[in-house]
Amino acid sequence: MAKARLEDLYVEKIRPQLKEMLKVKNIMEVPKLSKIVLNVGVKEAVGDSRVLQGVSAILSDIAGQLPVVTKARKSIAGFKIREGMPIGVMVTLRGKKMYEFLDRLINVALPQVRDFQGVTRRLDKRGNYNLGIKDWIIFPEVSFDSAQKFHGLNITINTNAVSDEHAFELLKSFGMPFRQL
Fold it and tell me: Regarding beta strands 68-71 and 153-159, do their DSSP bridges make them parallel or antiparallel, or are they unpaired?
């Protein structure tokens, strides 16, 4: 089974460079990606459950695998949500699909954002990175015809880094277009 382009780049170039730059003794201490989670919340699913099927189909095109329907954990009367109602879809990517998605995100999708200045440099204090995208139309798999309504997308990139600085250097070495200070 062939490796993804970014996975080869990580093993051959990025990992040895990070070992030197971060001054870690063992190659196993070098941070790496563990998973990428894509999440779409669909508030219209409360009134019409068919909306969730269309969103699920488009997210499966973006991710390359079937998404899981997420359900409400508790009832919220103000939003007319009951416990157990389907309210969104999510996909967890690992391995080759994870690296292929990250490659498409960095090199194809993010450059298509209008007036793109870079992504925020803020991580979550545990070495993970969250990125919110307002329109999923930036991905080439989504066509104007297939989507009745455009939704936002939350992308969480999980690493095994011990600090935000290590995770930041890992993502920067992959080519993540961070905002200039």
Answer: unpaired
Other C-beta atoms lying within 10 Å of the C-beta of residue 11:
12
User: Measured between alpha carbons, how far is 112 from 123 in angstroms, rounded to an integer?
Assistant: 23
Could you list the beta-strand ranges (E) of 11-121: 33-41, 68-71, 86-93
Whole-model pTM: value is 0.86
Please give the distance of CA 103 from its chain centroid, rounded to a whole number. 11
In the prediction, which pLDDT does 111 show?
A: 81
Strands lying side by side in the sheet with 129-133: 68-71, 86-93, 33-41, 153-159, 129-133
- In the block, tokens 């007036």 appear at 115
Contact status, residue 103 vs residue 4, Cβ threshold 8 Å: yes
Share of the chain above pLDDT 70, in %: 92
Task: Give the chain's radius of gyration (CA, Å).
Answer: 18
Give me the domains of the chain, ranges plus CATH numbers: 31-174 (3.30.1440.10)
Specify the pLDDT at position 147: 58
Name the burial class of residue 175, with classes exposed (0-12), middle (13-18) and buried (19+) by CB atoms within 10 angstroms of its CB: middle
